[in-house]
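Protein data:
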Amino acid sequence: MRIQLGTALLITLSALTLPLFPQLNTPAPEKTPVLLELFTSLGCSSCPPADKLLAEIDRQQPIPGARLIVLSEHVDYWNTPQWSDPFASLYYTERQKAYDLRMGVEAYTPQLVVDGTTALVGGNWPKAADAIQQVLHGPRIPVHVTATREPGKAKLDIAAGPNAAANKAVVFLALAHNRAESHVGGGENAGRDLSEVAVAYSIKQLGKIDAESTFAKSLSIELPAKSQAGDLRVIAFVRKSDTMQVIGADELVF
């Protein structure tokens, strides 16, 4: 059963021609990482404009002082017996439901969640910009991630802390295709060729971090078949255990 799409079908991106954002020449001395999670689907006709906006946010980084880390998560409720989104997962649907339950809203696509605190229509840049500004000056946990490629696998090192921003928090690791090109075989976009960035194929909990403590973990991951340098993203982020607010993040393309 599909989750109600609500107003998402009524709101589209007002302008898709470049540049999408005003050119700002004032450099920011520091950049605060902000995680933008877009819940989307190849089967949703209102999602491609939001996917394109996410790519432009990623490319242009339009908020001074912010390092915008984007992640595209494909939900599975657009799948049908005849066709399934190859990137879709029930896990991403459950992640969206958990956010929406916390925020008291219904799930729909495209939906953008800003730092785990605000949910809004994915193609609504003015509201997204306001939400980003609201989280820029909150407390943060330093997060650092490094990756080294080896034949068929990669070694990852993730460090976070010290944790002075929350009593308890959870550390997550997301792996994503840097870019994805799809010829859609079903759903409302059947026959279209679509392009996306930062398409998640794995999100896992790595561990917990208590108050005043630090976190460090090294692990080896298997690379997708035919993976080449520069085609993957690794994103580590820290989320409060009680409120689901993201309070630290780092990203690496490798």
